Amino acid sequence: MSFEPKILGILCNWCSYAGADLAGTARLQYAPNLRVVRVMCSGRVDPSLVFKAFQSGADGVLIAGCHPGDCHYQSGNYKTMRRFELLKRTVGQLGIEPERVRLEWVSASEGERWQSVVNDMTAKVRALGPFVPSSRALGAEAASAGGEP
Amino acid sequence: MKRITIDPITRLEGHGKIEIFLGDDGEVADVFFQVPELRGFEKFCQGRPVHELSRIVPKICGVCPGAHHLASGKAIDAVYSVDPPPTAKKLRELFYSAHFFHSHIAHFYALAAPDFVLGPDSPPAQRNILGVVAKVGLALGGEVIKHRKIGQDIQATLAGHQTHVSWCVPGGVSKGITEAERQEIIPLAKSSIEFAKTSIKVFNDVVLANKGYVDLILSEPYKLVDHSMGLVDAKGKVNFYDGMVRVVDTAGKKIAEYAPKDYLQHVEERVEQFSYLKYPYLKAKGWKGFVEGQDSGVYSATPLTRLNAADGMATPLAQSEYERFYSTVGGKPCHAILANHWARIVELMYAAERMLELASDPEVAGPNFRTIPTATPHEGVGTVEAPRGTLTHHYVTDDRGIVTDANLIVGTTNNNAPISMSIKKAAQGVIKRGVAPTQGALNMIEMAFRAYDPCFSCATHSLSGLAGFEIVIKEQDGTVVHRIAR
Amino acid sequence: MSKLKLAIYWAAGCGGCDVSVLDLNERILKVAEIFDIVLWPIAADFKYADVEGYPDGSIDVCLFNGAIRSAENEHLAHLLRKKSKILVAYGACAHIGGIPGLANFFRHEDVVQQVYKKAVSTLNPEGTIPAERTATQYGDLTLPKLFGRVRTLDQVVKVDYYLPGCPPVVEQAWGAITALASGKRPPAGSVVGASEVSLCEECKRKKAEKKIREFKSIATFQPDPEQCLLEQGIVCCGPATRAGCGSRCVNANVPCRGCYGPPAGVVDQGAKLLSAVASIVDSEDPTEIARILAAIDDPAGTFYRFSLPSSLLRGAQHKETA
């Protein structure tokens, strides 16, 4: 059985979640690998959530929010933008390929865009293969130690 | 074939063990000294901004962090092609003199003194600083604690902390001292000079007045004939902070004197499979094995070799003690490794006098303690004398100053081969055929190791004394024949 | 009343934590009144065989410093856990991994290659690499196995308390040790000898509003000693670092680098710092944001300077070589 990536999608309630809903009601087909978590604003996404996702078995993380200027809370997505810029560089240093962590702006009317983003990301992460965090890579040694991974 | 394992050695930075193999004749056939630890600073400094290294590398050692901090600071200045202003250099040297002062106090009183004050084969439970204090009195003990603290307090005044400091920045230091702070240091430095005089007297009364000890110091098991390395200033005197690296051969003749940046032309390191620590040697001589003598590449970098390599001490009281030292041991160079303890006392006096010189200079409290670098960073080498030997940091960076390569030759690393050889000689000297080694014999082997003050000194306040080890003597089939524990 | 038993042990550390105990100066004698030291390799003559002979749980307090790097470190962690009532992760390395944790950015094989083959003063044409077992004509010599990554103490055994710092501030350590000795036990798993909040609350610099248009490097900038370092554009780890150190680095006019670990409630120190530093950037334009943040060198190595082994990901991912 070939590898099917697990991708965590963290979607903001007002724009991107609605956009994903629209894709659903319009019966647009897209890759089923993405699991959605809904937050009120993409600005709520703490970088540690991204790392937690990878540690817990995710092969990719997609953060989706409103287009700049359209944030329901005015400036939440600007914070997302700034955090993501630094997050990109940090994950690069942690050996995580750039295609695995992605930020997209998806509006409530962009069902087709949502379909295309998810398909594109799934294909790219599939090509990269599974993500194995350093904690699991210690593997046998941790098990013999009796401590947590 | 019997085997004696000493594990762990204690009172060095990190961990160590010794394996002694006895031949069928019961004499020592061979001895291996192993360092079972590696952290990999030379690798994980890559990718870091070079200016951050001066606060990463002190974590190599919690007893000589000041040494790494300054060697690193100097290397970083060289990377940025920037020359710190005089105030910065004086501050750094004042800090460093204080560092040497407390470091040598800790080693002499906690590590060396017990063997001589109480005797090499006195009961182990007493053979420590508390036993020393009981014998020589609380007054002296209090002075030891007080002056160790003085050295640390001066470091903290200058650099913000007494242990792991973050102070050197490219082109100087991050903060200076006020005139009031400078004035406060002067009486502390004066008291330190008096304490150094006291320490000379302690050494005289306890060691030099005891013929047995003098014989021990000059005896063959504690002699190692190799080349001597140390930093010298423009006048050829011992300097801890800056200068040229000088090497003199086994006869005391100068065979090299080079700027720190040229170290690669003079020193090389080799790897042995049984130890995580590398072995430096003189490139010009080449590696001939763990052998003494003029043709061997083995060299030492210790307080004793600093005195051997230099023409003298830069301050008067230290110079006077230097002269007395050599006239007692029979001239330069001295190869008696136990004489390191006396060399440390000479350096203690120099450190104290140098503290006073620098603290008395108003420029040390000046406002100009930093030159902002403007050049593109590239590559640099910084060398100081750590209390335990010549310390070199070498960094290469990209145009942004991100480290692409780092190479370190640490104080005690210089002495890896000499320590191995001294342990073997001491073991051969004390372990005799048919005689199970006693507690005292174990300690005699330990004394060989301890003379080098291997990158960790037990501080002034240890509660009970010595390196703990267990000797297990086994038959070849593994049956335990004899077990001595301490 | 008989004295309590104290053990102090060092794993993959530097000795600075042992020095911090000795920096108690005269108060070390008070420690001696309360405790019998039963293990302290740097200063006392007890050895591993002695520890193995102690009854389980007979050591009242064990201060364990240093990270877990080798099989020997791990063995002692398990042994001392068994023999001790209270096991304290003492200092940054045992608490969050410390500076040795920076090795987790690299594959262990690459560390070994650098030290023993590539280091520029090393001549090793045979490619000798130190090995766990070396045969000699007399018998085998052994070295402990080095693990592929550095771990914190609590990733190997259960830890009762954490005493942070590199090294812990002497006064804090003193307070914590005497409290434990007197029976005043905070809830298990607590951080002791430090505050619950971030360094910014303790720091005495003047703080106004943080809106950064330009980040500066301490290499080419001399900070003002009074104003908040972040506001001057110097990346300071104070916002996500636990207070308790007395701001010793900041008082020396250099930025905090996080050695006390994260404040209460923060799981991943580096992620929090990343978030804090990014959130004060004063721009809404993506190109400008990228330009401003590009001035920060080595974000992962700065935000995770002391805490990489304790981070959620533990270190960098390495693709297996074929």
Explained architecture:
With 149 residues, chain A is α/β, with parallel strands linked by helices. Chain A has six helices and four strands. Chain A has a single domain (7-145), classed as Rossmann fold. Helix content of chain A is 44%, strand content 15%. In chain A, helix 1 (16-25) crosses helix 4. The longest helix of chain A has 18 residues, at 76-93. Chain A is globular, with a radius of gyration of 16 Å. Chain B starts with a strand and ends with a strand. In chain B, the strands form five sheets. Chain B has a five-stranded antiparallel sheet, covered by helices on one side. Chain B is α+β, with helices and mostly antiparallel strands and 486 residues long. Chain B has two domains: 2-37 and 417-485, no CATH class; 41-416, Cytochrome-c3 Hydrogenase, chain B, CATH 1.10.645.10. Chain B has helices at 41-44, 53-56, 65-79, 86-117, 129-136, 138-159, 179-208, 211-218, 303-309, 316-329, 340-359, 411-414, 416-430, 439-450; strands spanning 2-9, 16-22, 28-34, 168-169, 172-173, 227-232, 244-248, 254-258, 267-270, 279-282, 299-300, 379-386, 389-397, 403-409, 470-474, 480-485. Residues 456-472 of chain B have low confidence and may be disordered. Chain C is α/β, with parallel strands linked by helices and 322 residues long. Chain C has twelve helices and ten strands. A six-stranded parallel sheet of chain C has the order 2-1-3-5-9-10, sandwiched between helices. Chain C has a two-stranded antiparallel sheet with strand order 4-8. A two-stranded antiparallel sheet of chain C has the order 6-7. The radius of gyration of chain C is 22 Å and the shape is globular. The model of chain C has no long low-confidence stretch (mean pLDDT 91). The chains are: A alpha/beta (149), B alpha+beta (486), C alpha/beta (322). Chain A binds chain C through residues 46-48, 50-52, 54-55, 68, 75, 78-79, 81-83, 85-87, 89-90, 93-96, 131-135, 137-138, 141-142, 145-148, and chain C through 74, 78, 104-105, 147-149, 151, 154-157, 267-268, 270-272, 274-275, 277-279, 281, 283-284, 286, 289-290, 293, 296, 298-301, 303, 311-319.
